[in-house]
Amino acid sequence: MSAVIRHGSEDDITLAEVDRVAVVGGGGYVGWHIVLRLVGCGHSVAIMDLGLFPEAREAVSANKSITFFRVDIREKEELLDSFKRYRPKTVYHVASYGKQTVA
């Protein structure tokens, strides 16, 4: 498994040999934009969060490349179960203890 990140180009996220990516906190503003770039590069993405950024709700249900796991990162067993079920090769962690949203 290797990851290559190129900065300063139109395609500034290029992941080699990675197809299953988890974005912990992917339901927030920053995480959602990471999800969009990853899906745009052809990756299957799991969002692990308590809820979804309003713009993301409709897009998640319409896009088969995105899987949503409603999970609280403070609940270790919940989070581990999500990882066992999805089995990502790469994880981006952008979650915080900020305002909770509802999916």
UniProtKB/TrEMBL annotation:
NAD-dependent epimerase/dehydratase domain span: 21-98
SUPFAM superfamilies, per database record: NAD(P)-binding Rossmann-fold domains
Bilayer-spanning residue ranges: none
Domain of life according to the entry: Eukaryota
Pfam families assigned: Epimerase
UniProt-recorded name of the protein: NAD-dependent epimerase/dehydratase domain-containing protein
